[in-house]
Write a structure and sequence with these properties.
This protein is α+β, with helices and mostly antiparallel strands. The chain has one domain: Arc Repressor Mutant, subunit A, CATH 1.10.10. 60% of the residues lie in helices and 13% in strands. It contains four helices and three strands. A hairpin with a 7-residue loop joins strand 2 and strand 3.
Length: 104
């Protein structure tokens, strides 16, 4: 999900902005904790999936901005294909179970 958000972004994003884009308008119903986001961003950056830069802030501590790398885009493509295959498989099993429930 993080790679998708960053792949769609026109500009570099900092952690809070990434979290806002992940949750959208669904305040409070997100399945992740914002505090868990930062270690994941650091790990993805260390793995070469993201690049980052620190920018001073006049209204608080410096902010670290993230951008997806070419390797991150490649991995995102692989993960999207895996997710699609998994979703299609689960959907076929659920549909089969529904068909069996409605059969006489």
């Amino acid at each position: 999900m993080l790679l998708s958000v960053l792949a769609e972004a026109v500009e570099d994003l900092y952690g809070y902005e990434i979290a806002r884009r992940l949750t959208g308008d669904s305040e409070g119903s997100s399945p992740f904790k914002q505090g868990a986001l930062y270690p994941v961003l650091r790990n993805m950056s260390a793995a070469g999936l993201l690049s980052s830069r620190v920018v001073p802030s006049y209204s608080g501590p410096p902010r670290r901005y993230y951008r997806i790398t070419p390797l991150g885009r490649e991995v995102l493509g692989t993960w999207r294909a895996t997710w699609t295959d998994t979703r299609d498989f689960v959907d076929s099993i659920v549909q089969r179970a529904r068909s069996q429930e409605t059969s006489p």
